[in-house]
Each structure stands twice: as structure tokens, then as C-alpha cells.
Amino acid sequence: VQLQASGGGLVQAGGSLRLSCTASGFTSNYYVIGWVRQAPGKEREGVSSITSSDGSTYYADSVKGRFTISRDDAKNTVYLQMNSLKPEDTAVYYCASEQGLYYSGSVASLTRSAEFTSWGQGTLVTVSS
């Protein structure tokens, strides 16, 4: 599986960014694509995920209501729309995936653990105050 993340950048607090993750190489129709971030000196945090099976989504409490994950199957791309950004959202954001059949409960557990099998390169998001 190959994952290509893009869309990071510098934005002021309160601003918005949209991250994109283009995926290829899945050997199953069932998989999860998620976003995991890691800030300097902090542990990685599973931010959001979406399933291929039924579009179930998960959001970490820290981003709920501000971030929206979506997918465009025709483009094999998952998006993370990030609104009302805060300085504490500053991190390298990684796109990651796991093959398998996941629904709402299991995708939450997977994302919180951030134990994805495949990882793309990170994209840096910097939010200035």
C-alpha cells in the first residue's frame, strides 16, 4: 500500500487547511485510512479515520467538531478538512492505513492505538498564535 499525504502548511489560529491522502495498492476492498499526528516531544495521536466498508468515521475528542474526514473513491483520496485551527494542532500529520473490515467501534479502537500497518510520509501543519 502506498500513501501520499499533502496539504500541510502555515496558518494562523482560527484558520483552515485541507489535507489530502491519495492511496493505492490495497489488496482488499475493506480498509481504513486514518490521520495520525505527532507534535514535537509528544506521543503520536490518532486524529481521525474513515472506513471503506460503510464510511464510518472516528474523531479524537481534541478535534471533534473542528475536523471533518471524507473520501472520494473515484480519486482514491481521503481528505481531512481542518477548521478553527489552534496552535496545539501544530504537528506532523501522517496518513496511515490498515486493511480489514472495520466498523464504528473497531475503527475507533484502531485509530486511538494508531497501530496502522501502512504509513505515508508526513506533512507539517503549523498553526501560529
Helical content stands at under 10%
Q: Label the overall shape.
A: globular
* Structural category: mainly beta
Separate helix tally: 1
* Strand adjacency order, main sheet: 2-10-9-4-5-6
Question: How far is the first residue's CA from the last residue's CA?
Answer: 37 Å
Mean of residue pLDDT values? 96
Low-pLDDT stretches are none
Give the strand content: over 45%
Main beta sheet: 6 strands, mixed
Number of β-strand runs: 10
- What is the radius of gyration computed over CA atoms, rounded to a whole number of angstroms? 13 Å
Structure summary:
With 129 residues, this protein is mainly β. It has one helix spanning 104-113; strands at residues 2-6, 9-12, 17-24, 31-38, 45-51, 57-59, 67-72, 77-82, 91-99, 118-128.
